[in-house]
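Posting this for the archive.
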Amino acid sequence: MAHDHDHDHDHGGHTHIDFAEMLPLLEQEAELFTPLYAQAAGWLKELRTDPELIVDAGSGPGVISCLLADTFPTARVVAVDGAGPLLEAAGARAGRLGLGDRFSTLEAELGDGLGDLEYPADLLWASRSLHHVGDQRGALAGFADRLAPGGTLALLEGGLPSRYLPRVVGVGRPGLQARLDAVQEEWFARMRAGLPGAVAEDVEDWPALLTAVGLRHTGTRTFLLDLPAPVSDEARAFVATSLRHRRDGLAEGLDADDLATLDRLLDPDDKVSVHHRPDVFVLTALTVHVGVKP
């Protein structure tokens, strides 16, 4: 299954990730992807209509946490993340949106069983965060332990790599994004192997892993974000930021021709760049797996 990392966890050719440094990109992406997350939240509302406590495990800057609070207007929401600056942004966002009276944050690492979370969760959401824990099965077991009886775990992992450009862009070799994906997958494997307590799964079968930690797999759905050309200024800015992170982070794995192509695509003064070209689009698909605690 492809790993989509357009929240671009790749810096300087190494695998250490400074999530606080990535705050602008994380917010930019989550805001642009909100229609997709809203579809997923609507599906969860059909499955689980009355959660009292929602936990967003690996919340980042809280864009999805606030969306969940809006979708479930009687629920309390706790945003959990290991990066304090991201939680500060999440709390500020909740305050701006008038959600502060039922929104709180908790700084904790996901591999530690969500730290000092006081209450069992009725809905636990984990979006592209579990794969940053060395022992994914162990972390899932910790999530399951934090669920109330009948509680729901919604795990967003996998999907399809994002696409922003046609296969032939008029400069360099065709198929640039496919080659970027291949280098990204190699980086992802190194990142996973270097995590503390890393455990390599034979198969990333998320429904089977949910079952293995005692949950009942109740559904899997994939949600599409389709922003066709011509895109909005916000989408165009996101594409430029995302490609810049990939160019900088994956440079050691790219050949000179692809680096030169990326430089032209990112040069605001170049008419073939993503800043000007009319064929830029955003197309991605993300998959959510749901398990329920008996």
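The chain is about 35% helix and 20% strand. The CA atoms of residues 24 and 34 lie 15 Å apart.
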